[in-house]
Each structure stands twice: as structure tokens, then as C-alpha cells.
Amino acid sequence: MEATTLADQLLVRIAEEHDHASAKVTVVGVGQVGMAAAFALMTQGVVSELALVDVVADKLRGEMMDLQHGQAFLRTVKVVASTDYAVSKGSKICIVTAGARQKEGESRLELVQRNVEIFKFVIPNLMKYSPNCILVIVSNPVDVLTHVAWKLSGLPQNKVIGSGTMLDSSRFRFLISERLKIAPQSCHGYIIGEHGDSSVAIWSAVNVAGTRLQDICPQIGTSSDPENWEQIHKDVINSAYEIIKLKGYTSWAIGIMVSALCNAILKNQKFVYTLSTLAKDYHGIKEEVFLSLPVVVGESGVTAVFNQKLSEDELEKIKQSAKTLNGVISGVKM
Questions:
Q1: DSSP-derived secondary structure for 119-178
Q2: Residues 65, 80: contact at Cβ < 8 Å?
Q3: Of the candidates 11, 12, 113, 133, which lies 20 to 30 Å from 235 by C-alpha distance?
């Protein structure tokens, strides 16, 4: 057949192209958080195709073009965007950042019903085009909305993941590292429970090089601690509120975190992260709630829940966190 275009003259095609990339990820919501996640996914080489979905067509097209124009400096990533959820077809992971923005002084739990209404539209549309995807929920209040997404999607619990306290744990490790003047990667500690005011700092497990800080200072993290390490957990809780007060929103850290999570899923890395997962029957929790526990993450989503040993005080706090979340869930109108 005679070549008719420049492309035909340059390329002799010998096989059909695949419609969808092997590492396709969709981001729903191109606000500050969604675009920080998209930027991190693209620049860190996590994805081979990135689909953006939003209701604001002009902003959506502008963000897509802005990312596309940097392609010459990166690994090739196909970037597509549309208000039509068909663009998400064949995604391995669907990240949901869409929702009403948290206002200054507003609790994450106060956002719930406004965002549930948005999820009633978003989740069924994602399932229509990517029924076997892993859902990563980032919108706040994340624990409640992860529970809502699980109910609306019909997916098994391992394939519905909330970003939870993965960022809280990163903030925790950073603030500890600042006091000790060592790298955050060398400080090991976890925040579990609700991503919010009832989160639980697991001081009994905080360690550096295998040495528990509690063995050196038994009062650490308590009100009787003379060095007031308890303030670090308070600062973790207040971090988002402080950043929102200063710049109007949070974005970069959560974007980097989402990229790391997707990388762990797509590459089956089996990392342990604190993520929002179905917590019923763990640590004596009786309620059907999603909250953050240390979990193993791989290509099937959450592949295992880490059986973390907690002190009696920590156990009581995690149970109370579950009750707090259950109280909100019980009032949600699905």
C-alpha cells in the first residue's frame, strides 16, 4: 500500500498497538492535591499513562497541556484528560481527590456529607470503565469516604485504600528527626487510627536503629514527659490546619505520598504503610469502620494487615478513634 502521510513514510507498522498502557493511573479532581499527585506520578516515572478527570473543562485541558509540554524532559508518559469518565478506561489505579475543599478551622469530619454526594457520581463512573482497578481515596474526611467508596464500588476490601495516616506518619517521622538532628528515613514511627483529631501516635514503637525511645525515656509521649515529646503528635494533628491557614491548601506532601503509594502497588513492592483499611476485628474494634493500620501494599492492593503490638493506652485510643468514625458513618446518608 502506498504511504500517504509523513508518519506512514517514516514508520512501517508491524503490530497492532495496545489501547491502554500497562501502568495507567487516573486522577479524579485537578485541584491542588490532584495536580500535585499527577505531577509526582509523572516526574517520578511511576506511570506510563495518566488520565485526568474533572468537571471544569477549561482548567482540565489547561492542566493536561501544561503536563504534556514537559514531555521532552522526562520519560514518555501519555497524558489524557476529559470530563467524560470513558477516558479512565483500563486504569490499574483510580485516585480520587475530588471533593469540597476543607475550610480554615473546619474539621475533616464536617466535610463528610457534602463529599458523599460527589462520590455517588464519581465511584460508579470509575467502576463502569475500570471494574478491576484499585481505588485510592484521598478526599477528606478520608476514612469515612473510603468506607463510602467501598460500599458504592462493590470492590473487595483489599482494593479500596484510603491515604489515611500515611502522610501523618511521614510528618511524625520528620518532626522527630528535626529534634534528633538525623534523617527522617532513619526515624521509625507510626500514626494510626483516624486521619484527623483522634489519631493515635504509637510511641511504644518509635525507634532509631532498633532502639526504642521509650526504653530510654519511659514517659515519652505522655503529659509527664519533661521534654514534651507529646507536642510532636499535636503538631502532626495541627499541620494541615496550619498549612491551610498559611497558604490556603495542602498539596505537595500529599502528592508525593500518593505517588509513592501507587509505585508500591504497580511494582508490587510490599512496603508497610499506615493506610485506611477495614479495621473491624483488629485491636478489639467491633465497628465496621475504615481507619489506618500498618498494612502491606502490593499489586493486589492491601495484601496483609500488620499485627502491631500496642500498649493498653494505645489500644483504648484506637478503639475510641473507631467509635468516633462510626458515629459519623452512622449519620451518612447513602
A1: HHHHHHHHHHH-TTPEEEE-SSSHHHHHHHHHHHH---GGGEEE-TTHHHHHHHHHHHHH
A2: no
A3: 113
Condensed to tens digits (0 to 9), the pLDDT of residues 41-93 reads 999 999 999 999 999 999 999 999 999 999 999 988 999 999 999 999 999 99
Do residues 195 and 170 touch, judged by C-beta distance below 8 A? Answer: no
CB atoms within 10 A of CB 102: 20
CA dist 222 to 81, 164, 199, 310, 314, Å?
Answer: 49, 24, 15, 15, 11
Angstrom distance (rounded) from CA 325 to CA 147:
10
Count of C-beta atoms within a 10 Å radius of residue 293 = 26
Q: Is 285:257 a contact under the CB 8 Å cutoff?
A: no
Distance CA 34, CA 21 (A): 20
Q: Give strand pairing partners of 79.
A: 50
Give the CA distances from residue 284 to residues 142, 192, 318, 323, in Å, rounded to whole numbers and listed in that order: 22, 15, 9, 12
How remote is the C-alpha of 151 from its chain's centroid? Answer: 18
Q: Which residue has the higher pLDDT, 274 or 115?
A: 274
pTM of the model: 0.92
| Cβ-based neighbours of 160, under 8 Å, separated by 6 or more | 134, 135, 137, 146, 149, 150, 153, 301
Catalytic residue set:
195
C-alpha cell belonging to residue 310: 500496642
Quick one: how many helices (H) and strands (E) in the chain? 10, 14
Neighbours of 135 (CB within 10 A): 25
